[in-house]
Amino acid sequence: MVTSVSGVTALVRMIRSQLAPHGAAAGRRAPSMDGRAAATPDGTLARLVEQRVRAIGRDDPQRGRKALRVFLEAVLLDELGQHLLADPRFFRMVDEVQEALEQDDSCQPLLEQAMAQLLATGGQDGQ
């Protein structure tokens, strides 16, 4: 498992700082609707992301983008509540957030670093 997650951590901080003005309560955790444990500061969020990234096909040409999407979904659900899984607007919002990040040239190095770390972390098969 990758232990250096500075790029991912920086991306999480950036996303959370953008959410703060919109009323997302830091530290608030909603119960999971799908039976999984809700994300907590103890690493559950990282484990959920790692598990979902690992499920992305290694030969998928969009693997990096898909890993980033998994990460964005997890962070946003962690901040805004797992109940949004039942709202189709949530997934459109994730699309818009990812598009905005990808179109912002100043975010490119951070996104590339985060994708590389997500793929390195999610690429481990329990070995």
Summarize the structure.
By secondary structure, the protein is mostly helical.
Q: Any descriptors?
A:
single chain, 127 residues, mainly alpha, 58% helix, globular, disordered N terminus
Could you characterize what this model shows?
- The chain has 127 residues and is mainly α.
- The chain has one domain (6-122).
- The protein is 58% helix and 0% strand.
- The chain is built from five helices and no strands.
- Helix 1 crosses helix 5, helix 2 (44-54) runs antiparallel to helix 3 and helix 2 packs across helix 5 (108-122).
- The protein is globular, with a radius of gyration of 14 Å.
- The N and C termini lie close together (9 Å).
Summarize the SSE layout with pairings.
Layout: H1 6-19, H2 44-54, H3 63-80, H4 88-103, H5 108-122
> What distance separates the N and C termini?
9 Å
Number of strands: 0
Return the structural class: mainly alpha
Name the average pLDDT: 75
* Secondary-structure element series: HHHHH
Count of DSSP H/I helices: 5
